[in-house]
Amino acid sequence: MNTISEIIGLNWIVIGPTLALVATALILLFCTITVETSDTTKKVVTISGIFATLFSIFLKFGLFFTDGTSSYFSEKILLDEFSLFGNVLLGLVLLFNFYPIWNSSYELKEKTTEAVILTLMSTAGFMLMVDSENFMMLFIGLEIGSISLYALAGINKGSLLSNEASLKYFLLGSLASCVLVYGISLMYVSLSITGVYETTIAISFIGAENIPLTTLIGFLLLIIGLLFKVAAAPFQSWAPDVYQGSPTGYVGFMASSAKVASFIVLARLCVVSLGFTMDKFELFFTAVIILSIFVGSLFATVQTDMKRLIAYSGVVQSGFILSGITSGVNGTSASLFYLAAYVIQLTGIFLIFSAITGELSSDFSMDNLSGLFVENKFITICFSIFMLGLAGLPLTSGFISKFILITNLWSYEKYILVFALMLSTVAGFYFYLKPIWVAAIDKPDAVVSKITLKLNDKISIGMLAGITILLGLFPNILINISRWVIQNYL
Amino acid sequence: MDVKLIGLIYTLILFPLIGAFVIFIMPKRRSELFQPLALLLSMIPFSISLYLFSNSNSKSAYQEFDSINWISAYGIKISLGFSGMSHLLLSLTSVLVLLSFLSVTEKYSRSKGFVGSILILHSAVNGVFLSGDLLSLFIFFEAILIPMYFLMGVWGGENRRYATIKFIIYTVFGSIFIFIGTVYTGIISYSQNGTIALDFVTLSNITFTTEQSKALFLLFTFGFLVKVPLFPLHTWLPDAHVEAPTAGSILLAGVLLKVGAYGILRVSIPLFTEGFIEYRFIIAVLSVIGIIYGAVVAIAQIDIKKLIAYSSISHMGFVMLGISAGNLLSLEGAIIQMINHGITSGALFMLVGFIYDRRHTRRISDFGGLKITMPKYAAIFLFTSFASIGLPGLNGFVGEFMILMGSFSTFKLLSAVAAFGVVLAAIYMLWAYQRIFTGEIQYEENKNLKDLNTRELVSVLPLLFLMLIIGVYPTFIEGYVLNDAQMISDLVQLFSGGLN
User: Nearest Cα to B266, choosing from B419, B89, B111?
Assistant: First the structure.
């Protein structure tokens, strides 16, 4: 049994961000249900909680630079470059998406802080997930994050679509979690593997060719569980409905945080654990990637609802990111760049959507954009930048990420994937330019009236659009960061 | 190289962008100032390109003058370079941009977006002609799409949505092959140099195997040929030309089609000569089909703009025939024909724009007898038609004659067939002239048409002057293309000699 001093002696900084978020959420919960607290106090608590989180991420960097890659809490928690990258990205997603969530939580009757608490908890879960060394920790993190997201999807109780989204997300999501847990248990049964590094050791011990089939199936199921979260085809069917039904102000956060966490974990699995065994999964991954870009492109071209369109475009983008992660270490670094650039654009787009129709609306038909340019020049320009970034036009971050990714794929001699991915960008130009046409070029009779952006939204949207352009012009910083993440595994 | 000169060249790329920014921040109520301001703003790139054109350096073969580190982790640099051919095309671009600003009516010139888009387009096109590596070439090549999307989408004709999307999809479809080719070249360059060096100087020292050369030639050439366009890939062009506003058509025909041919001359042939020798016959056959097909379809057109669009396919077929023949004379002819086509079809689209502003129709059958009411217009149109047909003494003759002369030594039968294209050109241009300008005035609306005013005359006459100059004194333009043509034809000769 641990004594008190042993507990205090543990390195709490490693799970500092998670702890800070959970503590903030609990304080908020306590405030809401017990004592009458003013909104200002709650706001101060939340914002200081978020900054405490960011500060503890900063402290984790300090720990990492003194200790290097190491495991904590009896090999449950891992501190490596992937977890730091994931923490920073999740922190930024929370920071940029926090305001619309906070803002709209007042419109929800008697639930003023519920949405905020769920958001904080979800980020805490996903941060735990990217920090996990042990697969059970991974599962716990994933569940904390996902269950909060299921609730967030249905937070707008009055809306039928929101309820539908929540239920669908919950049912399909828990099915995926079951698959994931089953995979973890199969791995434990066959080789007693419980963690990322144990897998590496076990595989190197028995040799890549002697891995039992049960373990491979276990891995496959674990990967499928993660692929579900990133909405790669054929596990994408929940995404369009959930995106469409969930409150617009929350979708940016929901989509980005789940994708970031799952992709980081997937990248770590592929780079660290599987390494030499990756060729056993090559066929599976190739099929998933090609199916993702095919299904995503095909369905995105016919959508009239913008949120569904973004969901299907997300399927395509998941295919892109997955193609880098599964093809090698350098490809993974390209994918991390891609992931960061994509999350920035995604967040920006949903901030714009929620500014146009309000944070709690569900549908976002393309008509909501018609003639946007007439009265809202700033929003339209930023929206076009994000869409062109997603399409991968030069001078935006989307182009750089595609260029690096394709270069790496070509150097791994994955020619079929390259052609398939590039063909999907042609379709991409069709469906990403269509909303720009509706917003800026069409001359409809009724145009969207002037939208007064709140200062925070204006700053956030402007900053994200600026980052999209700046990363397209000066990509070196992010490229170096993404290469730093994988440098030990080269 | 001279620092001053480098500064001027950067100005050539960046100044139109700054100009567009200036236009965008102008207050909307002073919209009458947009046109003079745009003219003033495009005067500066115009004078710079003329200055560079007259510079002693400008007739040189390809030289790189600057390179900047861009993606340092991958060792990727942005390089800039030029040769005599780029100078010709840069000057052509700035002349056409200046004149198209002059030629547009108030409907267009009072719109910020229109003026700004053309300025951004100018910047991107200058970037293409000055780029010294594959990546920046690709970036500027793609950047052209955005201003064109808005130019055609916002100010286009009835069917603009279909035409714009078709244009974008075709170009993007072509450009993904250029992109893949760039990546492939980068990987080969990495295996030989240790960095992904993509600048033309480094690439010209890399040895590609025959297979690589063939594959890369196909990838790049396919992408560029969509833009040219060569025969089976041409279907976007008539739609785009017809639906684009007049200034858009002028720049599309005058400049953007040349981007494709420029890419082939700068990238496909010099770097992947073996592939070129392997596939040049196919390109030559397709160009001859394009020459005849474009001309025959042009005869049958009832819309003047569509007629000129199909004639562009025919003329660009000549350019591609000259390029695929690959000897000194035909290459010189091809580059000169690129310039000629830019001037002539630019002028023709401008003229069609003038009549469209007056009558709001482009159907040939709606006119007839315009010579009576618009004598100046008729004279200018006839002059331009002659230049387009290739009447000796005007520019068209020089280019087509050199192409046919040169290609005859390589492809005898094909050149003989292509020569019929000139005859067909005479049929469609002169028949159209006859139907529009001669005879009695049939329609009431045509009786009161005003002849060209001073602004319109000023915007079209410089082009006529250029047609005449190139026609009677081609040596002056030949000096600029000699080095490029020499370099390419030497390479072609070297590799085809090696194969025999």
Answer: B89
Do residues B390 and B396 lie in contact, with contact meaning Cβ atoms separated by under 8 Å? yes
Taking contacts as CB-CB distances below 8 angstroms, the residues of chain A near B169 are: 426, 429-430
Q: Name chain A contacts of B150, Cβ cutoff 8 Å.
A: 440-441
Helices in B409-474 by DSSP H: which ranges? Answer: 412-437, 454-472
Q: Is B179 touching A (CB cutoff 8 A)?
A: yes
Strand partners, A78: A71
Name the residue of chain A whose CA is nearest to B24's CA: A377
Inter-chain residue contact A395 with B179, CB threshold 8 Å:
no
Instruction: Give the integer Cα–Cα distance in Å for B241 and B253.
Output: 8
Residue B69 CB: number of other CB atoms within 10 A? Answer: 10
Domain span holding position B262: 1-271
The 10s digit of each residue's pLDDT in B37-50 is: 888 888 888 888 88
State the nearest Cα–Cα gap between B284 and chain A, in angstroms.
27
Please count the structural domains in chain A. 1
> Which residue on chain A is closest to B75 by alpha carbon?
A476
Quote the CA–CA distance of B87 and B499 in Å, as a whole number: 34
The Cα B455–Cα B98 span in angstroms is 12
Q: What angle do CA A215, A216, A220 make, to 5 degrees?
A: 115
Q: What ipTM was reported for this prediction?
A: 0.90
Nearest-angstrom CA–CA distance, A62 and A73? 18
Q: Do B213 and B330 share a structural domain?
A: no
Domain count, chain B: 2
Max CA separation in chain B (angstroms): 73
Q: Write down the pTM of the prediction.
A: 0.93
Any idea what the Cα angle at residue A432 is, between residues A431 and A437, rounded to 5°? 90
